[in-house]
Amino acid sequence: MGALATFRRILASRRVRRFDAAGAGRRWDSRLAFGRTGPETLAASAPIRSRARHCYANNPYARNGIDAHVIAAVGFGIKTVSAHRDAEMREACGAFFARWSERADADGRTTLAGLQREIVRALKVDGEAFAVMESGLDGMPRLRIIPAELVDESYTRDLDGGGYAVAGVEFNGSGERVAYHIFQDRPTDVFASLRPAERVPAGRVLHIIEPLGAGQVRGVSALAPVLLRLSELDQLEDALLVKEKVSAMMMAFLVDTNGTGAESPFDGEGAGAILESGLEPGTMKFLPSGWDVRLSQPQQAAQSAEFLAHQIRAVAAGLGVPVHLVDGNLAQANYSSLRAGSVAFRQRVEALQWTILAPQFLSPVWEAVITAGILSGRLDAPNFESAADDYLACEHFPPPLPWVDPKKDIEAEELAIKAGLKSRRQAVAERGFSIEALDAERAADAKRERELQLITGTEGASDAA
Question: What residue spans define the domains of the chain?
Answer without folding.
Answer: 15-26+34-153+203-223+320-401
